[in-house]
Amino acid sequence: MTRSLHLSNVRLADGQRVAVSVVDGRIEALGAHVAAPRDAHIEDGGGALLLPGFVEGHTHLDKSNWGRPWYRNEVGPLLTDRIGNEREWRRASGHDAAAQSLALSRAFVAAGTTRLRTHVDIDTDARLRHLEGVLATRQTMRDTLDVQIVAFPQSGMLIRPGTVELLGDALAQGADVLGALDPALIDGDPVASLDATFALAQRYRKPIDIHLHEPGEIGAFTLKLLLDRVEAMSMQGQVVISHGFCLGALPERERDVLLDRIARLHVALLTSAPPSCTVPPLKLCRDKGITMFGGNDGVRDTWTPYGVPDMLERAMLIGMRYDLRRDDDLMIAFDCVSEAAARGCGFADYGLHVGARADLVLVDAESVAHAVVARPKRKLVVANGRIVARDGALLS
Fold first, then answer.
1. Which residues span the membrane (predicted)?
2. Which DSSP category does 357 fall into?
3. Which of 108, 184, 196, 253 ranks highest by number of CB atoms within 10 Å?
4. What angle is formed at CA 315 by the lines to CA 309 and CA 318, rounded to 5 degrees?
């Protein structure tokens, strides 16, 4: 059956008043003089600002404690402290990745997110249990939220024998992307770790998204090794570097050599714009043609008490971290959770144009900059051509 929707009296970012016609989940027409399709559901936007559905470029649905009682965080300061604490807590508490990923996914959709990339822990304790939970959530949300799953070795790969095989199983069973983590500081052997990662990616024909927290020169060394493999294995456009803290701490000359190579190999960068870490230079990366986008990272888990499933808030935090104050600069912050994020993750048919999947958000805001700063309640959320949320609440 043909499904059609007509949104009238809405405004684009440039202020133009338009209508949008949606048929079978796609934007069929968008403009100032668009007639409603026959038998369409007609919705008056009331002059609201029309935005594309938001994109969460990096989160961990399987870890979240969203909607559950407060988790008292008493973990030590080291990365390894957090990894070990989380693994033990999840085991002892019976943390349910299926229930928690579903709760957080629904909250993301209510706030306007329609595309999402999540990293899911694969390790020799839980094996594929967390993946199975998130696969169930993806199936439940399939008509509303486009979910990419990254098979992520949170506890390390080479230091936990059997993890490589489990990652392969995860890719075979439905994970879309191969994850990796700090090959030098966690696995202790960046050459062997990266060799294993790229061999797996080649075997299963999957892209790579690597967490690179390694600082300064250690991070730069790992990054060079990674870029060598991208080039040697012709994986241009198939790799994302998440966090990339070293790129915010290196001397300019060394940093710019790396950024030029990242641009040439079409490697994308992800930032959560953390206030306590160095970050890659956003505007310089964009000037060099690098796709740099945003994500929450963890939301209310054992790693952090912070985070909410609202990509307008993440855009605001990106703006604050990078001192983006002008309206045109705040458009950059929004791009990090919309067009750039879709491009970096490889989500197809995205945006406000004819033929795109109809993922739309209406907010009462004067401009995109105003929406980022004020983060108004989502007046309407359309996912895959269907109204799924109104006034900040899911309809089902």
1. none
2. B
3. 108
4. 115
CB distance 19 to 8 below 8 Å: yes
Three-class DSSP category at 134: helix
Residues 356 and 332 in one domain: no
d(CA 131, CA 119): 9
Closest residue by Cα to residue 275 from 329, 340, 214, 323: 323
Contact (Cβ atoms closer than 8 angstroms) between residue 152 and residue 181: yes
Residue 270 has, within 13 A of its CA and on its CB side, a CA count of 29
45 and 117 within one domain: no
Residue position matching structure tokens 């040697």: 232
Residue 4 C-beta-side C-alpha neighbours within 13 Å: 13
Is 223 in contact with 241 (CB distance < 8 Å)? yes
For residue 27, give both structure tokens.
Answer: 């934007």
Q: Kindly state whether residues 377 and 361 are assigned to the same domain.
A: yes
Do 247 and 363 belong together in one domain? no
Q: Is 70 exposed, middle or buried (0-12, 13-18, 19+ CB in 10 A)?
A: exposed
- Measure CA 9 to chain center: 31
The torsion defined by the Cα of 356, 358, 363 and 367, in degrees rounded to 10, comes to 10
Quick check: 167 and 156 in contact, CB under 8 A?
no
Task: Outline where 94-162 has alpha helix (H).
Answer: 97-110, 129-140
Predicted confidence pLDDT, tens digits, the chain (396 residues): 357 999 999 999 999 999 999 999 999 999 999 999 888 999 999 999 999 999 999 999 999 999 999 999 999 998 899 989 998 898 888 899 999 999 999 999 999 999 999 999 999 999 999 999 999 999 999 999 999 999 999 999 999 999 999 999 999 999 999 999 999 999 999 999 999 999 999 999 999 999 999 999 999 999 999 999 999 999 999 999 999 999 999 999 999 999 999 999 999 999 999 999 999 999 999 999 999 999 999 999 999 999 999 999 999 999 999 999 999 999 999 999 999 999 999 999 999 999 999 999 999 999 999 999 999 999 999 999 999 999 999 997
What's the token pair of residue 323?
């001192």
Token pair in block for residue 309: 């499933």
The number of domains in the chain is: 2
